[in-house]
Amino acid sequence: MDTAQLERVYRAEAPRITAALAARIGDVGLAADAVHDAFVEALEHWQDAPPPNPGGWLATTARRKAIDRLRRARAGQEKLALLAATAADACYQTEAADDDLLGMIFACCHPALPRESQIALTLRAVCGLTTAEIAAAFLAAEPAMTQRLLRARKALRSTGKDGAAADMRVPDPDQLADRLAEVLAVVYLVFNEGYLASAGRQPARRDLAAQAVSLTRLLHRLMPREPEVLGLLALLLLHESRAATRFDGWGRLIRLANQDRSRWNRELIAEATGLLDRALALRAPGPYQVQAAIAALHAQAPDYEHTDWAQIRLLYDRLQAMTPSPVVLLNRAVATRYVVGPEAALAEITPLAADLDGYRLFHALRAGLLTGLGRDDEAREASERALALAGNPAERELLARRLSF
């Protein structure tokens, strides 16, 4: 088995094995580290003769690695006793695997943890990324990321009312809605960082976007009738359907208005619209469903100008009622530009200046509206402000290109 095949096995099996271990010892971080140790051992032993049951081998080895870590630490005797009493194959039982995995996802996104720690733990334990990979994704030094993960693990162990094991459980029904919203927010943040990196040399992190899509598919499989899970998955797939057209051959960002729609992935669009239809049929609307509906209107339009901007404007009104935000109003103004005109759109965003002065897209939109009104000097000043705030190299290049005209 070559390294690529082994990595595929690891990506497929690691989340469930980690979740099963975490459920038994109440420690997501220790479980993730033990599974990673098992993968390192697999690299050494599987080259010539891979086992007939790779998942079972990884589960057994991870359990042994967890015991070794607990013994070396000379602590965690209660966890060690729990794990030692567990059957060797208990971490690879399929009956409770989904519950364990879902519980671990909720644990990683516990609201008591800072958002950056939620993201790091999710990428580590659920997606299987190494500490070095997570640090690179967020432009942090690996030692700093290691400390962040350690602090998150320590905080997570102290969040349960009935002891650490409680942290690994799916929340009670009366808490599920709020906790699920936290999970979905973390996944969406991971996707957005992958879709358009906030900083660094790479304009996009396709690996992070793919991890977020995979995690949302997993949530959908585990919670098939949750409308907002359906909505988020539809939203991510609609964004992913345009991935091949977002950058040109030189890595330059291509605006939605200029993308080659014949190259959009119609299979993903069809899957997404089907998911959205199922979500809407459940009659429990939420913000991800509304955002997916907006993205679907873009996907179905023959070109940018003939998009159903009036409907999009109404959907942004609905979204603003659900989750009031100046960014939602800013996006609504884009639709206003095509429904009413640039002067009306400019009037809508002017009151947002105090809240969004540090937001690059506010100034970029304002520059476009001012250009449409022939106020070129003001437009140039707004473009320069947007450029100063942009951290993504592709966005900076696009804004600089505007200024050169």
Strand content: under 5%
Pattern of helices and strands? HHHHHHHHHHHHHHHHHHHH
Mean pLDDT: 85
Q: How many H/I helical runs?
A: 20
Radius of gyration (CA) equals 24 Å
Amino- and carboxy-terminal Cα gap: 55 Å
Largest sheet composition: none
Number of strands: 0
What is the share of helical residues? 55-70%
Structural class: mainly alpha
The unreliable regions are: 162-166
Overall shape: it is elongated
Describe this structure in words.
- This protein has 405 residues and is mainly α.
- Helices cover 69% and strands 0% of the residues.
- It contains 20 helices and no strands.
- The protein has helices at residues 3-25, 28-45, 54-73, 77-84, 97-108, 115-126, 131-137, 142-157, 173-195, 206-222, 227-240, 266-281, 287-300, 309-322, 326-339, 342-349, 353-356, 360-372, 376-389, 393-404.
- Helix 16 packs antiparallel against helix 18 and helix 18 (360-372) runs antiparallel to helix 19 (376-389).
- The radius of gyration is 24 Å and the shape is elongated.
- The N and C termini lie far apart (55 Å).
